[in-house]
Amino acid sequence: MPNKLVEVKNLKKHFAVGRGKVLKAVNDISFDVYEGETLGLVGESGCGKSTTGRTIIRLYEATEGEVFFNGENVHKISGKKIKDFNRKMQMIFQDPYASLNPRMKVEDIIAEGMDIHGIYKGEKRRERVFELLETVGLNKEHATRFPHEFSGGQRQRIGIARALAVDPEFIIADEPISALDVSIQAQVVNLLKELQKEHGLTYLFIAHDLSMVKHISDRIGVMYLGAMMELADSEDLYAEPLHPYTKALLSSIPLPDPDIEESRERIILSGDVPSPISPPSGCPFRTRCPEAMETCAVKNPEWLEARPNHFVACHLYDPNLHKE
Amino acid sequence: MSETLLEINDLAVSFSTQGGEVQAVRGVSFAVAPGETVAIVGESGCGKSVTAQSIMRLVPEPPGRIKHGSIHLNGKDLAALSDKQMRSVRGKQIGMIFQDPMTSLNPTLTVGDQLTEGILTHENISKSEAEKKAVELLNLVGIANPQERLKLYPHQFSGGMRQRIMIAMALMCKPSLLIADEPTTALDVTIQAQIIDLFKEIQEKTGVAIIIITHDLGVVAQIADRINVMYAGEIVESGTVKEIFYKPQHPYTRGLLTSVPRLDGDRSQPLIPIAGTPPDLFSPPEGCAFTSRCKYAMEVCRAYDPAVTHLSDRHFTKCWLQDERAEKPF
Ligand SMILES: Nc1ncnc2c1ncn2[C@@H]1O[C@H](COP(=O)(O)OP(=O)(O)O)[C@@H](O)[C@H]1O
Ligand SMILES: Nc1ncnc2c1ncn2[C@@H]1O[C@H](COP(=O)(O)OP(=O)(O)O)[C@@H](O)[C@H]1O
Ligand SMILES: [Mg+2]
Ligand SMILES: [Mg+2]
């Protein structure tokens, strides 16, 4: 078994949203990320994917629960170790327009982290920037330009170069390709895969495009309304989804194949995702679940290993519930 | 199908901007038959929305200008209509749906008021009859408790619900053509599935023809009868859904198809992207606009615009590889 690089334990992130109301953006989720793997995180907008990523990298304080990086509790790190941690864990953002400072030259954007951490100084700095530009498929002439002179795909490449600049071990990519055209998405995804191989990187890849997540991830976690519903090897998840939500999600994805589409039976969920301010009792998915039972309104399902390495939170798979 | 609902001929649209003339649409021709669904696909900036705006005569002029070409709806030349006549065409014969329903809903009016007001401007009926119709429309688009919902304001609905309301508005006067510009792009997949289902259902019930603009090839495979693939302001390939998905002839179409992973695909196979980015439309290159990104580009592609080659009665492509002297790479 490979080494656990990141361990997320019963993580909660709640936001106060006025009038004493609390929005439970992430509500008690646990998972591990193994060294060298890509863990995909999927789910519909608002289900808590970004908040999970941001809490792991300490952009947010956790409301409850812990995150361990290389065995160290990240929300308790102090002193000199903070800087080290900040270097090893990097984030790539969705919006290649908003995430780059428009007044900075590309070389300074890429080198910002290197400057903060005091690595690659003087002549080395420039060399390193050129090398990174080349790594992400740009060239050294681009170093002195400003972000607005680049296309969306190129800006995302700059964002990737910036993340790579400080030799990270773990990269959280939050919808890194969602704003790009399909032809350009494929370029960026191929690049991320190559970089992973070359540098032994570990990824948390957040996205809502399940076909792309499956393509890039070794394992996939499915979130709904702040909770983790299912987690499995990506092949297993697609071949044998257990949770009714995962099944519906998979069957909603239109396939680029008209013959298959002609005869495909899909599960169309009714209604919308409930508000995370007043989520349903019991299982968060029960209001839209085609297989909901009485228990589902009463009891929150436990996180079970229903098959080897295949976890699910659903009463349908609770052995104690079906014993009688 | 010999009948034609909409016919576009050699349409060209430009915008004058500080940087110069943007040639957004460069000679587009296609037809839509009653009741069929035609998809327009292509990367952002290739002229899909401007094509749709031209049909509805909603291109902002200035900076936009229709340089040449004609658009006929039921045999009538839309360019010859007065603004007033055109407004009536937009309400009664062509319905429109956009990516972001909030831009076309009035945030200060209840959904009921907006619907009845719309119905009353196009039909000579009483207010209570119009209200009854509004309820029927919400029923048609699958909104439960329509009487209650009519009293709500647009912001009180979710994104998917708002899109349903937009569809209800577009269908108000039983149009013969619905133009939907990225109608599901802002929605989550489970909601997208609901909306696509709704389109199919409505088409079955009302026989409306649909032009759908989308960048999602999965959506296209699900809903379209025919596909126009646009690149840099031109249609570079057109055909039935099956012709485009299973026998794509233009290297650009092939590139779009190999860029997307398949749910049932092999993870170890890298995706095959299209290299580079689309050309800028200030000065579209001589010859074929795709040349600089094309794996199969030949000398001739740089210098001369390729001719249209017909491969079946509905399948055509604009590519030099079709020339009998060219070597066939696939
Ligand atoms: N800073 C914040 N303050 C209050 N609510 C927030 C904040 N950030 C996110 N949320 C809410 O938390 C929920 C989860 O959001 P997010 O993690 O961004 O979801 P996702 O990335 O899956 O779309 C949403 O309901 C969102 O509105
Ligand atoms: N109002 C406008 N003013 C200037 N340029 C415009 C305007 N509308 C569209 N364009 C340009 O026309 C081209 C085609 O745009 P559009 O049809 O919106 O592309 P898409 O295929 O993404 O829908 C783009 O280069 C765009 O920048
Ligand atoms: Mg997010
Ligand atoms: Mg558009």
Automatic annotation (TrEMBL), chain A:
<dbReference type="InterPro" id="IPR017871">
    <property type="entry name" value="ABC_transporter-like_CS"/>
</dbReference>
<dbReference type="InterPro" id="IPR013563">
    <property type="entry name" value="Oligopep_ABC_C"/>
</dbReference>
<keyword id="KW-0067">ATP-binding</keyword>
<dbReference type="InterPro" id="IPR027417">
    <property type="entry name" value="P-loop_NTPase"/>
</dbReference>
<dbReference type="InterPro" id="IPR003439">
    <property type="entry name" value="ABC_transporter-like_ATP-bd"/>
</dbReference>
<dbReference type="GO" id="GO:0016887">
    <property type="term" value="F:ATP hydrolysis activity"/>
</dbReference>
<protein>
    <submittedName>
        <fullName>Oligopeptide transport system ATP-binding protein</fullName>
    </submittedName>
</protein>
<keyword id="KW-0547">Nucleotide-binding</keyword>
<dbReference type="Pfam" id="PF08352">
    <property type="entry name" value="oligo_HPY"/>
</dbReference>
<dbReference type="GO" id="GO:0055085">
    <property type="term" value="P:transmembrane transport"/>
</dbReference>
<keyword id="KW-0813">Transport</keyword>
<dbReference type="GO" id="GO:0005524">
    <property type="term" value="F:ATP binding"/>
</dbReference>
<comment type="similarity">
    <text>Belongs to the ABC transporter superfamily.</text>
</comment>
<dbReference type="InterPro" id="IPR003593">
    <property type="entry name" value="AAA+_ATPase"/>
</dbReference>
<feature type="domain" description="ABC transporter">
    <location>
        <begin position="6"/>
        <end position="250"/>
    </location>
</feature>
<dbReference type="InterPro" id="IPR050319">
    <property type="entry name" value="ABC_transp_ATP-bind"/>
</dbReference>
<dbReference type="GO" id="GO:0015833">
    <property type="term" value="P:peptide transport"/>
</dbReference>
<dbReference type="Pfam" id="PF00005">
    <property type="entry name" value="ABC_tran"/>
</dbReference>
TrEMBL record, chain B:
<comment type="similarity">
    <text>Belongs to the ABC transporter superfamily.</text>
</comment>
<dbReference type="InterPro" id="IPR003593">
    <property type="entry name" value="AAA+_ATPase"/>
</dbReference>
<dbReference type="Pfam" id="PF08352">
    <property type="entry name" value="oligo_HPY"/>
</dbReference>
<dbReference type="InterPro" id="IPR050388">
    <property type="entry name" value="ABC_Ni/Peptide_Import"/>
</dbReference>
<dbReference type="InterPro" id="IPR013563">
    <property type="entry name" value="Oligopep_ABC_C"/>
</dbReference>
<dbReference type="GO" id="GO:0016887">
    <property type="term" value="F:ATP hydrolysis activity"/>
</dbReference>
<dbReference type="InterPro" id="IPR027417">
    <property type="entry name" value="P-loop_NTPase"/>
</dbReference>
<dbReference type="GO" id="GO:0005886">
    <property type="term" value="C:plasma membrane"/>
</dbReference>
<dbReference type="InterPro" id="IPR017871">
    <property type="entry name" value="ABC_transporter-like_CS"/>
</dbReference>
<feature type="domain" description="ABC transporter">
    <location>
        <begin position="6"/>
        <end position="257"/>
    </location>
</feature>
<keyword id="KW-0813">Transport</keyword>
<dbReference type="GO" id="GO:0005524">
    <property type="term" value="F:ATP binding"/>
</dbReference>
<keyword id="KW-0472">Membrane</keyword>
<dbReference type="GO" id="GO:0015833">
    <property type="term" value="P:peptide transport"/>
</dbReference>
<keyword id="KW-0547">Nucleotide-binding</keyword>
<keyword id="KW-1003">Cell membrane</keyword>
<protein>
    <submittedName>
        <fullName>Dipeptide transport system ATP-binding protein</fullName>
    </submittedName>
</protein>
<dbReference type="Pfam" id="PF00005">
    <property type="entry name" value="ABC_tran"/>
</dbReference>
<dbReference type="InterPro" id="IPR003439">
    <property type="entry name" value="ABC_transporter-like_ATP-bd"/>
</dbReference>
<keyword id="KW-0067">ATP-binding</keyword>
